[in-house]
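Morning - pyridoxal-5'-phosphate inputs below, output right after.
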Amino acid sequence: MGHLKLHIPGPVEINERTWKAFCTPMIGHRSKDFQNLYAKVQPQLQELLATKQLVFLSTSSAWGMMEGALRNLCVKKVLNCMCGAFSDKWFDVAKRCGKEAEALKVDWGSPILPEQVDEKLASGEFDALTLVHNETSTGVMNPLADIAKLKKNYPDVMFIVDTVSSMTAVPTKFDELGIDLMLAGTQKAFALPPGMAVFVCSESAMKRAETLSDRGYYFDLLEFQKNAEKSMTPSTPSISHVYALSSKLDEFFEEGLEARYARHAKLSQMTRDWATNHEFKLFPEAGFESQTLTCLSNGAREGGKVVDVPELQSLMKQQGIQIDGGYGKIKGTTFRLSSMGDETEETMKHLYEVLDWALGQLES
Ligand SMILES: *Cc1c(COP(=O)(O)O)cnc(C)c1O
């Protein structure tokens, strides 16, 4: 079988221009050429994330930095805001790193609300917090800006935020948010191959890291800072990713960041409209729907439409499209349609047409 067009929420489809850049012949990672390459993407990344801090590149998937952030920033106890598979896992990872951790847990499909976070932080027990902005497993986008406002009341709490499936698709203005560490993997909204993470941290995060002696080496924030000042990375990076990132950032600015955000808002609205027109309920609580992917409830809630999800996936596959059949404990009772990366109204309309055909097949 030929290539399946990916409409799963990561990895997503990679365009020709990005692949060409990815395949640029290799250079040495301590060469002037590499320094020039990193120095070229640095201001673009700073503009994208609206920050004056240096933006770092980690050759790892997002989880590397999600774990690394805890190892660099948590001394006392971390509050893990849990609302889906990725945010739930972060609690588990904190404990595996030997950290004291406490859960702030809401039902899958619900968002994390600022008042819930405030109530927990008020105990004074915490010096770090983890939050997933866009919970890819449930299709919930948490109110990041409202939660980030709490930072000024709790300056000693390190706000660590996963924007893996939102960075580049919705504004994630780091300095304005006032948070301490923000990270994303490249295979989601960036539409790059998997294998690299982009992240940024605050000055107070750097100061906190200095106080920890067991932060390790590979994800040491101080190493990233020291090297980035010379347009380098601590260890040999995936240079191919940096070439691809450079090409992708050019694309972002050619499109314009505002136009890019508007496109994602439009495409996710189109998918929600398609869903409700077909009597599917949306899994996320109203008002907290993701703008990069749509999680559709498969009849489990409020008497919505019910389909055989694996069968729907296999019909889609016959037409060359891969969709997701639900993640973790909501596998089969939900399914997800991604509109992140390079998708356009045209490509999304094609997806809906094929879905219409597949639903027709299921009903006949
Ligand atoms: C995909 C994803 C991750 C994990 O990324 P890896 O690349 O597997 O490390 C973490 N958080 C969110 C929100 C994700 O969507």
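Note: The CA atoms of residues 41 and 109 lie 36 Å apart.

O.
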